[in-house]
Specification:
172 residues, four-stranded antiparallel sheet, alpha+beta, SH3 type barrels, 3 helices, 11 strands, Alpha-Beta Plaits, globular
């Protein structure tokens, strides 16, 4: 079986969420969940000042583009290419080019799977980064971002902190 890669589809500006919704519906209808694994519209949090008030809003990281994790074959190419609002794939000519791991890393999307030896409720110690030597209980695990959320004591209060899988190990 072929390997799934991340591809970039170009869409009409402002249609990114509509394309994602249409693709998700088509994937479910055609039973392509094992070939088109994920459709993402990359977002970032931006702080805006409006009328003197700070407001945090979500903005599209790449307006006019949608990221798709899929196994490239004739059927998946056809489904994505013929979704309303999609103008084509990013790549020379008509051949889509998958994103490399180096291109995916800044987006916070990890392609390699990391196995972990802890679960929610376990106590772990941070072995790298700014929270090095901090001990905390795991409250949440996010496999897509490959992070664990732990509670640490900060200024006399428990504060949730998100730590990368690579920066922690289970406390025995």
């Amino acid at each position: 079986m072929a390997e799934a890669n991340w591809y970039v589809a170009h869409t009409y500006s402002g249609y990114e969420n509509k394309v994602k919704a249409d693709l998700d519906k088509t994937i479910a209808n055609r039973g392509l969940e094992d070939q088109i694994l994920e459709v993402r519209v990359p977002m970032q949090e931006v702080v805006e000042m409006k009328n003197g008030a700070r407001k945090t809003v979500q903005k599209k990281l790449f307006p006019g583009y949608v990221l798709i994790n899929m196994i490239m074959n004739d059927e998946t190419w056809y489904v994505v290419r013929n979704t309303r609002g999609v103008t084509g794939f990013v790549g020379p000519g008509s051949k889509p080019v998958p994103l490399s791991d180096a291109e995916m890393k800044p987006l916070g999307i990890k392609t390699e799977n990391v196995t972990i030896d802890f679960v929610e409720g376990d106590t772990i110690v941070v072995v790298a980064g700014p929270w090095k030597d901090t001990v905390g209980a795991v409250t949440r695990i996010d496999y897509s971002k490959q992070t664990a959320t732990i509670n640490v004591e900060l200024f006399g209060r428990e504060t949730p902190v998100e730590i990368s899988f690579e920066e922690v190990r289970k406390l025995l």
